[in-house]
């Protein structure tokens, strides 16, 4: 009787351990799938988003590629900025305004709230604009 209880206990412990391992493997597989999906999304966000031609941040042309660019042009110093879109997903759009590869401003546009944040990177002035548009 004692041996039967010991064998039952051992089988029970093995059953529990094997059940825990199978969940762990599924979680690892799920995490791997999610990280692959995220990597693919990031690749699609990065490709083809660099502006070919420099765009003037403030100028006479009133046609803008993005809805927040008019406000950005009013807030930042004049210059021939290259606009580099770092991310543009359904929730936010992050852009850098550069001259000769040197970053001057970072903008974050939260699409759901229509909130625009402009950060002066070059002069260390920090956030220079934070409002809804």
Short note summarizing the structure:
The protein is of the alpha+beta class.
Task: Fill in the keyword field for this structure.
single chain, alpha+beta, 6 strands, 133 residues, rod-shaped
| Order of secondary-structure elements | HEHEEEEE
Mean pLDDT: 75
How is the main sheet built?
A: 6 strands, antiparallel
Estimate nothing, just give the exact number of structural domains: 2
Specify the overall morphology: rod-shaped
Low-confidence stretches: 42-61
What is the strand tally?
6
Q: Give the C-alpha Rg.
A: 26 Å
**How much helical structure, as a percent, in the residues?**
25-40%
Beta-strand percentage range = 25-35%
The structural class is alpha+beta
Distance between the termini: 78 Å
Output the number of helix runs: 2
Strand order of the largest sheet: 1-2-3-4-5-6
Q: Please, could you describe this protein's structure?
A:
Residues 26-65 have a biased composition (Acidic residues). This is PepSY domain-containing protein. Residues 25-65 are annotated as: Disordered. By secondary structure, this protein is an alpha+beta fold. A 6-stranded antiparallel β-sheet has the order 1-2-3-4-5-6, with helices on both faces. The longest helix is centred in the N-terminal third of the chain and has 45 residues, at 2-46. The protein is rod-shaped. Residues 42-61 have low confidence and may be disordered. The protein has helices spanning 2-46, 69-75, and strands at 55-56, 80-88, 92-99, 102-110, 115-120, 126-132. The protein folds into 2 domains: 1-47; 55-132, no CATH class.
